[in-house]
Amino acid sequence: MIAIIDYGIGNVFNVQNAVVPLMNDAKLTSSPAEILSASHIILPGVGAFRDAIEALEQQGLVEVLKQAHEKRIPILGICLGMQLLYEVSYENGTYQGLGFLKGPVVRFPEPQVKRIPQIGWNTLVENKASLFSGVEGEVYFVHSYYAQGIEDEILTYVDYDGVKVPAIVGSDKVYGMQFHPEKSAEVGRKLLERFFSL
């Protein structure tokens, strides 16, 4: 079963609608038992980091996700869900993340970046050979904050006004996509298929 974490943050139904045609056993769930028995886990999210991490904590899902990580169940964070995988976010304060990936989440630098948030299509650039190598094209972004993770974990990136923005990151069966694969047409579908191939 593919567990899509349902914790009340963001439109999880868009993710579900994109995943079910690829993996018909995908299910929205907040059940610890289902999450820990899943073959793959997707952590979606739209909105503020603080609200998301607090929702996960209140539902006991931070500990569940840490157990899943220890069991080496493949985890994919999407958009805000990717940012939650990092150690800390500085979005309107300082908030601790899950810590599966190294580094902070910070706001785009002004005035270098002329428009915040980044909204729209941007072209993936491969940074490191990975599970996602060879999938090329544009993907759809909506975000004001980005991860300043370690270089070795950046698999692909995009250039946004001269800022190297990690687009796909990964380490030890934990992956993140800062963009929305569910809104990225054929490229997004192929990238999700690669994740499910693990």
UniProtKB/TrEMBL annotation:
Keywords: Amino-acid biosynthesis, Cytoplasm, Glutamine amidotransferase, Histidine biosynthesis, Hydrolase, Lyase
Main location: cytoplasm
Pathway: Amino-acid biosynthesis; L-histidine biosynthesis; L-histidine from 5-phospho-alpha-D-ribose 1-diphosphate: step 5/9
Residues of the active site: 79 (nucleophile), 180, 182
Enzyme Commission number(s) from the entry: 4.3.2.10, 3.5.1.2
Catalytic reaction(s) noted: 5-[(5-phospho-1-deoxy-D-ribulos-1-ylimino)methylamino]-1-(5-phospho-beta-D-ribosyl)imidazole-4-carboxamide + L-glutamine = D-erythro-1-(imidazol-4-yl)glycerol 3-phosphate + 5-amino-1-(5-phospho-beta-D-ribosyl)imidazole-4-carboxamide + L-glutamate + H(+); L-glutamine + H2O = L-glutamate + NH4(+)
InterPro entries: Class_I_gatase-like, GATASE, Imidazole-glycPsynth_HisH
One Pfam family cited in the UniProt record for this chain: GATase
Annotated function: IGPS catalyzes the conversion of PRFAR and glutamine to IGP, AICAR and glutamate. The HisH subunit catalyzes the hydrolysis of glutamine to glutamate and ammonia as part of the synthesis of IGP and AICAR. The resulting ammonia molecule is channeled to the active site of HisF.
Protein name (record): Imidazole glycerol phosphate synthase subunit HisH
Lineage: Bacteria, Bacillati, Bacillota, Clostridia, Eubacteriales
